[in-house]
C-alpha cells in the first residue's frame, strides 16, 4: 500500500523560505515520478513541480521556476520541495503525489496535504 506523508508546512512571511517533505512508503519508487501540487481556496489544484526519482530530472511550473527546487533522498525515500522568495499567492495546501506516467502525466497516489500560508 502506497503511503505519502507530507510535512513542513506553516505560516511564513513574504520573502521567507520553507521546505516541504514527502515521505514515501509501500513500494520501490525508483521508477516513479513524484510531483508537488497545490490548491488555493476557491481554485483548482495546480501542478507545481515534479521529479523523476530514478535520475533526478525535474520540471517546474513557470510560476515557481527559479524560486522552488525539488529534490529527493534515496536513503530516506523522501522528496523535498525547497521554496524560496515566497509570495502571498503561494498560499495553498500542498500535496505530494506519485505516478508512473511522466513528469506531467497522471498521478495515482496522493498524500493528505500540508498547509502553506504566506503573509504579506
Give structural notes.
The structure is a single chain. The chain is mostly beta strands and 120 residues long. 0% of the residues lie in helices and 52% in strands. The chain is built from no helices and eleven strands. It has strands at residues 3-7, 10-13, 18-25, 33-39, 46-52, 58-60, 68-73, 78-83, 92-99, 109-110, 114-119. Strands 2, 4, 5, 6, 9, 10 and 11 form a seven-stranded mixed sheet that branches. It has a four-stranded antiparallel sheet with strand order 1-3-8-7, with no helix packed on it. A hairpin with a 5-residue loop joins strand 5 (46-52) and strand 6. The radius of gyration is 13 Å and the shape is globular.
What are its keywords?
120 residues, 0% helix, single chain, mainly beta
Compact description:
By secondary structure, the protein is an all-beta fold. The chain has strands at residues 3-7, 10-13, 18-25, 33-39, 46-52, 58-60, 68-73, 78-83, 92-99, 109-110, 114-119. Strand 4 and strand 5 form a beta hairpin.
Spatial gap, N to C terminus: 40 Å
What is the succession of H and E elements? EEEEEEEEEEE
Number of strands: 11
* Beta-strand residue fraction: over 45%
Biggest beta sheet attributes: 7 strands, mixed
Q: Extract low-pLDDT stretches.
A: none
Radius of gyration: 13 Å
Residues in helix, %: under 10%
Shape by Cα distribution: globular
